[in-house]
Amino acid sequence: MPTIRDLVGVLRQREGVDAAIVLGRDGLLIDSETAPSVDAESIAALIPSIVTAADEYGGHDGRGALTTAILEFAHGIAIISVLSSDAILFVLARQNANLGKLLFELRRNRENIAALV
Questions:
Q1: How far apart are CA 49 and CA 55, in angstroms?
Q2: Of 5, 14, 84, 91, whose CB has the highest number of CB atoms within 10 Å?
Q3: Residue 50, C-beta contacts closer than 8 angstroms, at least 6 positions apart
Q4: pLDDT, tens only, 77-94
Q5: Strands, E, within the chain: which ranges?
């Protein structure tokens, strides 16, 4: 059976992916594989507040809890995928990454990925 380490390794090996980070809803790092310039601990500390804000919006607007968020920045794209009530997957990609395929695979395999955590 694959492990979280296997998951982050496979995601990080994809062309255009600079980081694959699994973190707790409490902001603690569970596992990661990143480019040298990426600070996984800092990212893990920041992401839960984004998820909380999105959950509040979803509750207020009747959309429900966040499952996936895509944040586009001037120099890259961040994907936040809520795996469970305890875990979040964060993927940091460059502009040239094949996001369609990546998003499809994350969505299709969300339950399998969540089972690893």
A1: 10
A2: 91
A3: 69, 71, 80
A4: 999 999 999 999 999 999
A5: 17-24, 29-34, 68-73, 76-82, 87-93
